[in-house]
Write a structure and sequence with these properties.
single chain; 45% helix; 6-stranded mixed sheet
Length: 280
Amino acid sequence: MTKSWNDLEDVKSFDYEEFNNLLILDANNVSYRFLQRNNYNSYTDEFKRTVQSLAKSYKAKRTIVCFDFGKSYYRMEMLGDYKGTRKKPEEPEEIKRYEEFFEVLNKLPEELDEEVLKFRGIEADDLLTYLTQHVSPRYNHTWIVSSDKDLIQLLDSNISIFNIFSRKEVTVQTLSEDTGLTPAEFMMSRIIEGDKSDNIIGIEGIGPKRAQALAKEYKTLDNLLKALPIKGKSQYIQNLNAGRDTLIRNEKLINLKRYYADAISAGKEGNDPLEILSEL
């Protein structure tokens, strides 16, 4: 389902108290839509209008904007080259563009009127997960704004995603229609195939289709691990049988609901962010 939404529409005065939905944004992810635009170095006002327009469209009583602040200390401890394959700008003009883009991004938290969460060594994914587990139950529905596939595991009947790049809504129903998977099974497929964008290596020879087929068959990672070794002569089956340690490691890197508290407490400020979050 494609959402009809215009982030540049006039944001009129609105009585948000009449609503009871929660809007939570993956701020870095949303900001990247400006990187290749002409206003890459002056997008603060447009970002603010985008947030306000989304809050209006999704009838949000409360909006919380979550930022990455460096790489996850928790994941870096397990995988030293976490996100290490991400391409860095090389040409002078491109380097300048990135520097000016990030200069705006780093100042955004101070410019927003909405609630902001940002802690050194903690990624927005883990903050968003905390909010879905502890704050969402107080609201009728939660909308996550992000194109990050790792967040699909957070979907349930009262939690949906709006992908601001594709302009599509992702729900439990649309996920089932598109892939035949539940959110938990989708997460399991990601554990098996890995996440190249984060340099999380999966089982060699297993791409999305095979990973999703295995997730449908075994339902949980525990079931798959108990079934190993699986009979079969195919090379990808042999790789899977030899990949127990990879699967266990990937689960700790990818399973947000199980490890978000560990990831948050591993940040620079220790348990302080959890105490702050508990007061939201």
